[in-house]
């Protein structure tokens, strides 16, 4: 399964950008491990810095290149989504093209 994820990730990067990022099986294992740790160890919402019982050790590992690639290319998309969510419109229509029109207007407002 991890071998397939590795092949498909590299294939997608090659098809999308024309470059290969050479993701390895080990990097995908690390990424899945990080996701599991984030889900299993529930971090408190707030804590006092000096409390020893809520302190967690840092994960000592290198950041996988796939995370660096995501952060490099998806920052603008995440920012655009968060900014357009501030200007939600209450336009309801059965015509699908009206949604696309108003969404384009919102993107133009945010980008200006």
Briefly characterize the structure:
The chain has 112 residues and is mainly alpha-helical. The chain contains four helices and no strands.
Task: Describe the SSE topology.
Blueprint: H1 2-17, H2 25-40, H3 65-85, H4 96-111
Low-pLDDT windows of residues = none
Which sheet architecture does the biggest sheet show? none
Domains (count):
2
Q: Which range does the strand content fall in?
A: under 5%
Gap between N and C termini: 45 Å
Total helical elements: 4
Structural class: mainly alpha
Instruction: Tell me the helix content.
Output: 55-70%
Q: Cα-atom Rg, whole angstroms?
A: 20 Å
Number of strands: 0
Helix and strand element order: HHHH
Shape: extended
What do these coordinates show?
The protein is mostly helical and 112 residues long. The protein has two domains: 1-62, no CATH class; 75-112, no CATH class. It has four helices and no strands. It is extended and about 45 Å long.
């Amino acid at each position: 399964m991890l071998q397939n994820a590795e092949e498909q990730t590299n294939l997608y990067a090659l098809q999308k950008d024309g470059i290969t990022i050479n993701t390895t099986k080990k990097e995908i294992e690390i990424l899945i491990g990080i996701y599991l740790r984030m889900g299993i160890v529930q971090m408190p919402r707030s804590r006092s810095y000096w409390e020893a019982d809520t302190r967690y050790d840092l994960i000592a590992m290198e950041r996988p290149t796939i995370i660096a690639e995501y952060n490099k290319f998806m920052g603008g998309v995440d920012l655009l989504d968060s900014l357009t969510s501030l200007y939600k419109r209450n336009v309801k229509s059965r015509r699908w093209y009206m949604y696309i029109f108003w969404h384009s207007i919102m993107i133009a407002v945010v980008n200006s």
